[in-house]
Design a protein that fits this description.
Blueprint (H helix, E strand, L loop, with lengths): L1 H9 L31 H9 L3 E6 L5 H12 L3 E7 L6 H12 L3 E5 L9 E3 L2 E4 L2 E3 L2 H15 L15 E6 L5 H8 L4 E6 L5 H12 L3 E6 L9 H10 L3 E4 L14 E5 L3 E5 L18 E8 L2 H16 L9 E4 L3 H10 L4 E6 L5 H12 L3 E7 L12 H9 L3 E5 L3 E2 L2 E5 L2 E5 L5 H6 L2 E6 L2 H16 L4
Parallel strand pairs: 1-2, 2-3, 8-9, 9-10, 13-18, 15-16, 16-17
Antiparallel strand pairs: 1-4, 4-5, 5-6, 7-13, 8-11, 11-12, 12-13, 14-21, 15-19, 19-20, 20-21
Length: 471
């Protein structure tokens, strides 16, 4: 089922696909078998299919297509689904992509190196499977669920970086972990406005609910359809039940393959927090198995113009009105294409590019032109394996760039989801994949920054990642 769905997705042009589910891949069993359940068990499948509220499951592999299909279907109908997987060694990129797809379907996936849940199989609602026996004793099920929660808990010990004199700061994922984002939400005193493609990090959801409960006005806009799947229903219901105002993102971005792919929030009307990552475990560094964490970038920004523009943009999208005038923000479909290309064209000495997906002929030409005028151009792209021996989705771009003398390749130490351009002493960070959707059709948000510490940190990280591209 999974492979069939992926083949169907491949029929869409890559540049129409905005996020991590962008290509077909057959997640063959590259990972060592671990404790957990199998999709071949009719008892397990029946428990998943009958669940109305929650599923907590330890899976043995991401290659079990039958099991993954049933888990996705449960999440689609609004069940709170959490999966736990132990892989003893770094996984193949196809398995990492399968994990991204499971998250895109609304399943919270925690991947570790060694299981802390020996013997745990599955809990569906208030029933636990122990061996071949179903257990409904409340105390036993509660204890097992608590053990699952402890084993899969996100590390929220990190704190936000200092803003300094520039009123901006960089948060690098997965190194920063979910702690800074959770702390920022926890520190809100009056309002939290969040517009996000994908939200299901248990720690972030809990922080939003806690904010509402202490009297903060929380508004959340969620994309109603992640590509190929949906993750809206369950999270929206969970937030609404806590009193949080929830809306789907603007309908104008739900035509064809377009989506609201932005990732930004405004805190107390005074701080903008935006980035390239989704608020899921992989996007916030919540997986101890590092290849299942994304290379992503977030920015804190308290500068007056940026905050005012973000506040106006959120309100416009919330009220379904036209976007306000924009000077500082890089926003799709309003100005992103022109601003990103101008940044590339302004480079005289160096261009370092991270992106999950590069499928835009015009942008590739601008990179080639930069190389021809003597700029040192380097590109790292996400490895999204093809199905049935087909090349990875980004291989045509790499071939084009290498033919022009540009250093280009894949980065797989973490799943490369970031979207960054370092151009001399300026840097772009945003939610835009370098595709027609990301640069021209979706709702996307980013900025071009000139803070020396941020630009230098991005350049240094690029050099490190380029030197160590694999786990």
């Amino acid at each position: 089922m999974l492979a069939a769905a992926l083949v169907a997705m491949a029929a869409c042009a890559v540049d129409d696909i905005p996020d991590g589910d962008s290509v077909d891949a057959d997640p063959s069993d590259f990972d060592a078998k671990a404790d957990g359940v199998s999709g071949t068990s009719p008892v397990v499948l029946a428990m998943i299919d009958g669940a109305k509220h929650r599923v907590l499951v330890q899976i043995s592999t991401l290659a079990d297509k039958t099991l993954l299909t049933h888990l996705r279907d449960a999440a689609k109908r609004g069940v709170d689904v959490h999966a736990y997987l132990a892989v003893s060694k770094p996984a193949h990129p196809a398995s990492v992509l399968a994990g991204e797809q499971l998250e895109a379907a609304g399943v919270d996936l925690c991947v570790v190196r060694k299981t802390a849940l020996v013997g745990f199989q599955i809990i569906a609602d208030d029933t636990q499977l122990v061996g071949t026996k179903k257990v409904t004793t409340a105390s036993k099920v509660t204890a097992a669920a608590a053990a699952f929660a402890t084993a899969s808990a996100e590390d929220v010990s990190g704190t936000p970086p200092s803003l300094g004199t520039s009123d901006t700061a960089l948060m690098l994922m997965p190194e920063s972990g979910p702690g800074p984002i959770v702390s920022l939400v926890a520190g809100a005193k009056a309002s939290v406005d969040l517009e996000i493609y994908q939200l299901q990090s248990p720690a972030v959801v809990a922080a939003l609910i806690a904010a509402e409960q202490r009297g903060v006005t929380v508004r959340v806009m969620l994309e109603p359809k992640t590509v190929g799947y949906q993750n809206y229903k369950m999270v929206a219901a969970q937030l609404a039940a806590a009193g949080i105002m929830v809306k789907a993102t603007p309908p104008q971005f739900d035509s064809s393959h377009n989506v609201d792919h932005a990732k930004f929030m405004v805190l107390d009307g005074a701080e903008l927090v935006f980035g390239s990552g989704n608020m899921v475990r992989s996007g916030l560094g919540g997986n101890p198995a590092g290849e299942f964490c994304n290379r992503d970038f977030w920015i804190r920004d308290r500068r007056t113009t940026a905050v005012a523009e973000a506040r106006g943009l959120f309100d416009a999208d919330w009220n379904r009105t036209a976007a306000p005038g924009l000077e500082q923000l890089v926003v799709t479909p309003d100005n992103a294409d022109a601003k990103v290309l101008a940044l590339i064209d302004a480079a005289h000495t160096r261009l370092y590019v991270y992106n999950q997906s590069l499928a835009d002929d015009e942008l590739e030409q601008h990179l080639t032109d930069a190389k021809q005028r003597g700029v040192d151009v380097h590109v790292l792209l996400g490895n999204q394996p093809g199905f049935g021996g087909a090349p990875p989705a980004n291989q045509p771009a790499i071939d084009t760039l290498e033919a022009a003398g540009i250093t280009a390749g894949y980065f797989t130490t973490h799943y490369l989801h970031g979207k960054v351009v370092v151009s001399d002493d300026a840097a772009f960070i945003g939610s835009q994949n370098f595709t027609s959707g990301g640069l021209g059709k979706n709702r996307e948000v980013g900025e071009i920054l000139t803070t020396t510490t941020i630009v230098d940190a991005l350049a240094a990280q690029f050099a490190t990642d380029e030197a160590h591209p694999a786990p």
